[in-house]
Amino acid sequence: MSPSTRHEFQSRPSAARRWESAALWLFRTATYVILICGALVFGNIVFKGSKTVFTTTAPFINVPFFTEAPESLYVFDYQGQKREMGDREFRAFKATHPEAKDIKAESYVYSAGGIFPCIVGTVLLVLGSMIIALTLGVSAAVYLSEYAKQGRAVTLIRLAILNLAGVPSIVFGLFGLGLFVIYLDWNVSLLAGWFTLAFMVLPVVITASEESLKAVPKGFREGSLALGATKWQTIRKNVLPYALPGILTSSILGIARVAGETAPIMFTAAYVVRDKLPWEGLTSVSDFFFQGVMALPYHIYVVSSKIPQNEYTERVQYGTAFVFLVIVALIATCSIVLRNKLRNRYKW
Amino acid sequence: MDIKPSFTSPTSGRSIPVTPSPVGSTLIDIDHVDFFYGASQALHDINLKIEEKKVTAFIGPSGCGKSTLLRCLNRMNDLIDGTRVANGQIKIRGIDIYDPSVDVIELRKRVGMVFQKSNPFPKSIYENITYGLRLQGRSNKSDLDAVVEKSLRGAALWDEVKDRLHSSGLGLSGGQQQRLCIARAIAVEPEVILMDEPCSALDPIATVKVEELIQELRTKFTIVIVTHNMQQAARCSDKTAFFYMGKLIEFADTRAIFMNPANAQTEAYVSGRFG
Question: How crowded is residue B91: how many other Cβ atoms within 10 Å of its Cβ?
Answer without folding.
Answer: 18
